[in-house]
User: Fold these one by one.
Assistant:
Number 1:
Amino acid sequence: MSPVLQAPESGHYTSMSLGGCAPADPVSDPPRWKKILYKRQPFPDNYVDKSFLEELRKNIYVRRYSYWAVVFESAMVIQQLCSVCSFSVVWWYMDQDLLSPQKLCGVGLAITLLGYLLFDAVDKGSGRKECGRTRWDDLKSSLVFIAFTYGFSPVLKTLTESISTDTIYAMSVLMLIGHLVFFDYGANAAVVSSTMSINMAIFASVCLASRLPRSLHAFTMVTFAIQIFALWPSLQRKLRAYTPGIYICVTFVFALFSVAGLLSISGVGALLFSILLISVAFLCPYCLIRLQLFKDNIHGPWDEAVIKEDLSRFYD
Amino acid sequence: MVHSRREGSGTCSHRNSVRTPETAHAPLRTHSICMVSDFFYPNMGGVESHIYQLSQCLIERGHKVIIVTHAYRDRKGIRYLTNGLKVYYLPLQVMYNQSTATTLLHSLPLLRYIFVRERVSVVHSHSSFSAMAHDALFHAKTLGLHTVFTDHSLFGFADVSSVLTNKLLTVSLCDTNHIICVSYTSKENTVLRAALDPQIVSVIPNAVDPTDFTPDLQKEKTNKITIVVVSRLVYRKGVDLLGGIIHELCQKYPELHFLIGGEGPKRIILEEVRERYQLHDRVRLLGALEHHQVRDVLVEGEIFLNTSLTEAFCMAIVEAASCGLQVVTTRVGGIPEVLPDNFIILCEPSVRSLCTGLEKAIHQLRAGTLPNPETIHNTVKTFYTWRNVAERTERVYDRVSKETVLPMNERLERLVNHCGGVTGLIFALFVIISFLFLVFLRWTTPDYLIDVAVDASGPNAAWPQHNCRKKPRKKLTMKK
């Protein structure tokens, strides 16, 4: 009979002769357990060595955040919220015929030109040299865009006539929220998609533009949407990278203007919006840092390995 | 049975394995074991062959073993495999990846019927990916049977899906009598995932059949060097790395060839690399391999490459080493535990590190400093044998059968205390419902009305003796 099976203690395995392993020398030190499977060791199968879970690592990828750095990062979200807010305010003014399209067009053009100059001035033309785009290219694409939008604005005007206004509003709200969700705030996440984000914003602007009184209004609205949702964020990014101080000031001024604009329409709205902005800017970073304390992330040799190299050079 | 064993015509599929004094003795008491898993033949894989080989060796040791799995297309009902291994293919709906759907209740009538008619004493479930395995554990506990669970895979903690799966595993294992893992790393992983007491987790490695994986002694010596890869071509097996390695090394060594067996969604990557660098004559993609073809593919090469990103045990490298190949592999999961350092070159999971490892192997091969394939085979075949696995598993059964199954009130208490307030309560509710369902079933069909099945294996086996001499391997290849 196997000595194992006759062993009186039933709780633990007491086998000393698993398979062909040589019995340990009684004189020398007791055998050390090794984390190997190919050699039969004089330990029971459910033996728990003191090195058990030795390789367990906790929270190795935790980042230490500093409060003001997170606040700085939140400026990007603030900017985007303000963009959506200003866009809506401008649309409301246009809808009420309080703002003439000519005026908006003029101001928009002036600010865009200023931004265009700034865009090159901020990095002293190094970005332009890198991507190799000439001014002629820029002019061409903007002309093409303006011509097409202008040409199609009567179509835009009548495009959604058969759809109820409520549906249009609901759709625009949904699309603008989608724009905020999918926008590339610099996070490396699966939901981030700048194409999707910009498309949703343009869709919302087309929807809203179609409810404006005349086709010139529609044209101005779509152009303004491009300026605020496509051109403005790229300038922002440059400002952020090269002149962070100015970037914060610009964000602050922009936020003030948006709240003021909203205040001229609805006091409650402005109050709620400013609460939102303040909580995003100051409360959320605080929560993020506080919640880091509760992080309990375990890593060990069982983790699936991550390929760190860039393998794309082999495949494309 | 005893007679045939003593003669050495082993019924386990490896006939020439090393005999230990214990294997010649019949165990003190025999168990009636029911193996449950969604994964069994005709499906192919590590879990499937583990269940089959383990069952065969347990039958050889005098236990009664039955297997319960779900129906595979026209393979349904009861089938008998070699040595009276009875397999129930149950008509349950397959949901995803050969795993059945689970409601925790619907399979109770069927499983209860089987457990009663086969007079099962231990329910042994396999693989945490199998819903049926968890269902069976759940019902077995309701029926008051002893439960054992074998975990074959590793799982992370980082994403939502693993958080949910780990929670379910916690629920499933909190009142299971004993858990078996295939490597120490896998044990650590399971203990953490299911919040278990490490004392109730045993480590029993997988095994390979060394008679199936022998080196080719008639092989001619040529200048050509072949690197063999046999794995499913999926992301987790590191096929992306493989593409990079092929490109790097084929540029450097003109006499180098790659032989790749296996199929999967990432095959396209390898085809792309082959196309792009014009390597059609040097990189051969063989597609899916049958189990019996693997050896013939392995012996065509000199170096075996494994690029897995996660692996609990990795049978493939043991099989390759058993065929006498030099193994180059990533250092992930339980792999460093599997083979001693002189048979294995461990690398980091990156193209550069793996290339360095492969170059080292190539230089050794050219210099002739690699160990002789036969020496490797003779050493490796002593490492892992199914008889040893069966013997150690039997010890788990012995231990488990002396333990008490938690009564209803303690089980509910354990669930609520161990699995967290919300989950624990939800599953406690399920336990109560399944208990009431069982009471109802016992009322409609009392246990004494269920026919007791004729045993095909075990001490009262009605199976004729001469069938024991058939080789199980033949049976398996026939089925595919």
Note: Chain B touches chain A through 65 residues (CB under 8 Å).
Number 2:
Amino acid sequence: MITVTVNGASHQVDVTEDMPLLWVIRDVIGLSGTKFGCGIAQCGACTVHVSGKPVRSCLYPIGQVGAQPVTTIEAIGQTPTGAKVQQAWLASEVVQCGYCQSGQIMSATALLDVTPSPTDAEIDQAMSGNICRCGTYVRIREAIHQAAEAGAAVGQPG
Amino acid sequence: MNAMLSRRVVIQTGLAAGGLMLGLRLPGFSPGVAGAATTVPATVAEGFAPNAFIRIDRQGLVTLIMPNAEFGQGIWTSACMLIAEELEVGLDQVTPMAAPPDASAYTDPLLGEQATGGSASIRGDWKRLREAGAVGRTLLIQAAAQQWSVDPGSCSASRAVVTHAASGRTLGYGALVDAAALLPVPTDVPIKEQSAFKLIGTAPRRLDTPPKVDGTAIYGIDVKIPGMGIGTVSACPVKGGKLKSFNEAAARAVKGVRDVVALDDVIAVIGDHMWAAKQGLQAAAAQWDEGPNAATGMKLVIERLDTASKTEGVVAKDEGDVASVIGASVKKLDVVYQLPFLAHAPMEPINTTLHVRPDGADVWVGTQVPVRAQATVAKETGLPIGTVKVHSQIIGGAFGRRLDVDSITQAARIARHVSYPVKLIWTREEDIQHDLYRPYYYDRISAGLDADGKVTGWSHRVTGSSVMARWAPPGMKMDGKLDPDAVEGATETPYRFPAQKTEYVRHEPNEVTTLWWRGVGPTHNVFVVESVIDELAALASKDPVEFRRALLPADDHRTRAVLDLAVEKSGWGSALPTGSGRGVALQVAFGTIMATVAEVVVTAKGEVQVKRVTVALDCGPVVNPDTVKAQVQGGIIFGLTAALYNEITIEKGRVQQSNFHDYRMMRINEAPAIDVHIVHNPTGSIGGIGETGTVAAAPALANAIFAATGRRLRRIPFATGQLNEA
């Protein structure tokens, strides 16, 4: 049995240590907001936060998580930055099919947590690991700037 | 090909929905269990169902049945807008729901079956959904007028409430449904003048997006059914091959593996979770008899196409004596254009969830063709079609991939061997290597110029696979010989040539099966036509925009206006730094006129950076301008991705690419700014928009690369070292 804390809740899971966190989250714990896209850390659809840092859960073994808290798309809206990013995503009508957007939002939130007012180049750097097949990149850029301004307006550090 | 033909399903027509009215409510509106479909009766015992699209219950809840699948296009929002406009309900008062398989009720007027594709949805819905809403409103007003004993003409409706202004009386739709359901349904009701629109033409928030930003949206891959196993599959890497051997004991020894299902051409391992299934499949180490295609590769594929392209094709258009006028021209062009096989690679990997029981089957799947999905499961399981329930799911990208049911057929063949519900998921590798691909096209073009630089004649021979012949044989023209899609955008162009010939040579590859891909015929032909027009402009030493203007019919003011707007907004003609260039492309596709200007920089190393894309379009009436812009922006990125990076290649009979590292997607750092300008033309004919951007990308890009470098690229993809080739 392995113990893992996801979105503040502790789970005991009967899986092998090499099992990627993605499948533990989706198929064992049952949170389906985190998506499978490629399985080789190329597309970013599976992005979650481990101790607040974005990781590709499709290649992250559950055995390496240990006591670090895991946050998924289902709970990111409970953080001030995550909530702003989700709001900006809706206001800019970023989403088309939406399948990659959990990962996009997790990456964008992680970016704004450390870089509250990113430049286009910083956005490109942080978001280039997330593929969107619908081609929503133009609006993702807009929405991140919008979320950054919303953060600045209320004096949020990040 | 034969295997696919024999498995091709017969399109069911006239199948009554009956008790099979199953669909998925948008998760944001559904209090139900995630993934569980909500059942809505086709005829509402307690409520009002004036047609196939509207259900209103006694509480006044308005459910709108969506004839088209939602896979990101925003069609559910736009379709709801069309109905709500006439039904006089707010967009916040409606719940969209996927239509069940029912060809009699939901056949697309343009496609001729219950399918979503070909940028046809809005064109098909524009009239029928507004009329459906108007019928509903008329009956509800009549029911209220009857109750009040007043003239229906003295009543009005707004936000699901009927009002008799003179007396101040009001009744909500919920209170009227029983009476309205008893009234005869009128066949001819007036719909609004466009000047009376309150909703159409505005950009309300999309209905499907809130659950897509907080992780609560349930796609097919997220479906959870009690007792369900999760499986993954491996099909023979070479088309036509068979499973030779595998290690079942090793697969079953993997923790969490439940079952191994081996069929003649595919093996599936089912477990408690995807990791067990994947590990089990790897342990099974399937060995294959690869069959007759195991030796072939791209060299042979292209040689065969080249040979076929030298034969005469079926003639789609023949005006004037093309051979003579080109022969007598002062300057001549005789060129070959090649477009590769392409995979669809939607972000949501292929998946189907099935529960096959002795008395029927449930299928949870995202599909562009629900009637075909139902039929193939019935056929593969031997169950009566009426016992197969299709629960349509929202889709994480389709792009034509889910216009076929090969993966659903495969899932049914596997699922009938287990008693429990099973979710079968393809890995990305399986998706890339077992897709049904956009055909490889090999086009020969000849054209000539006279002494004044005017086009004398234009000859275009398309050679490639016919998707239509396999997917919808009745769609073939000229006794089944001409695939109208293969020449769409070639036969009809925006231009008028003094002499023009278009031919089609059908040539099927043995190694892959082909399928529709975003932009279908026009994506292929507009690239070829607009590239060659650019070549001719250069040969005539004329500005590409001026050259195009001169070729437009004098009375085509609509196309001229679109071209002029793109020219103005893009800064066409203004100076650019060395190594930069602008390219233009003009198209009439899916009923929409569009002009596109791409601006690129080509580095000394031959790397292409797309800086900016400017689009002007005229699609006639606009339902939702923000959706139009989003679709064009996304379509441009989709088209640029293919034009720059994508090709599926075959060696030793198998697809060489496997995942996003070698079938790569444009990323945010490579994405240009994209400006979309819509011409106001509310009385024009309505055009489709889902694929127009994809069509424009490659030709605008190729022409910009030529402007920047003087190099004409006649083979897609561009960024595979072509600019470094001598």
Note: Chain A touches chain B through 57 residues (CB under 8 Å).
